[in-house]
Fold this protein.
Amino acid sequence: MDSIIEISYFVAAVLFILGLKRMSSPVTARGGILWAGVGMLVATLITFLWPDMHNYVLMTTAIFIGGVAAWWSGKRVAMTDMPQMIALYNGMGGGAAGAIAAVELLRGELHSTTFLTLAILGALIGSISFSGSLIAFAKLQGWLRKPLRFPGQTWFNLAIFLVAIGVGGWLVANGEFSGQLIALFFIMALAFGVLLALPIGGADMPVIISLFNALTGLAVGFEGFVLNNAAMIIAGTVVGAAGTLLTQLMAKAMNRSISNVLFSHFGATSTTEETVEGSMKPIDAADAGIMMAYAERVIIIPGYGMAVAQAQHKVKELMDLLLKRGVDVKFAIHPVAGRMPGHMNVLLAEADVPYDRLYDLEAINAELARADVALVIGANDVVNPMARSNPDSPIYGMPILNADQAKNVIVIKRGQGKGFSGVENALFFGDNTRMLYGDGKEMAGELISAIKQL
């Protein structure tokens, strides 16, 4: 029986790794998810054969409740709300790792210093990921609209973290399994996760979600060692490694370090008051439609505003209409456009935009200077030339899409507000920029109507 269990866990691990590999490409991502799902099914079912397993009713009930809840929420949640769903599910993984550690600590059967240390580390990291992910969910859902900051916040957070570390160290050093100490440890860890996420602004959400994902994987891996469960060790390691790499990529895309994201209060204040010369020049949909219809090259730059307006299907219709007129249409995707890594890719894929028309920042930037029209829909900070020109700007040095270099720029925007960084966007004041004010979905519809009338 032990051999069957070990072979099954090995098969599950292989499926996890191959599934993750296939997820790296939009073309094979769906198959990758299915492969990884089969791996998880194998690992779950074989656990019922684990020696001395007896909580079958409780396990089956938990799986049923969780499965029904996941199926129901997966069917109901719109693609525009996928970031907060991912944040919530990721938090559940960290919470599960923390719960496993709590059970093992309360049992008092971990006498090995190594396993006790791993249990404490997994509990600490998993609890931070759990509570932090819940705050990220609340922010993305719109329940917490403003970052919460106060003087001395970094030092206060550090004190909470050190208390958690101290209590955890005491548990390891003394083999103390007091319920009160264990409770204090988890309270401090959960509090630190909340305090860590509260000051983070919306512009940094892609990085934070990736970071908590990495922490969840790491916590699961640690608890896998505690339980001597190969599937948990491998799955946690793979998720932790992937989340860490993704976090680094997201931070690089913003030209910032992880510590800067966590502790700099990005966008809270600016060292100088931005001064942008010129004025925003409006355009109506009819004129914008003419400009795009008679262009040779159009590059569409989507942002979170497109997601909020649920305009992706209208944008796809606009693309099809332009292609029929012989216009070369491409999409420029910034790594941190949206509220999670790959957010724009997911939305456009849902609208059946062909994968080969989506280009990342490095691949498309050189072409923007040759574009007749750059259509910016709901994007702000990722196209702000201040990142190149103003050393005093909070976003200075962040790689951006060079929309300002296009011959003509059309920006679909609800109003004249600033982006999540709180920085004025010089692109909107450019001589070659025209502002098409209104809801993204409605304006895309008006552009379609204008082009059809030509």
About this structure: Residues 1-76 form one domain.
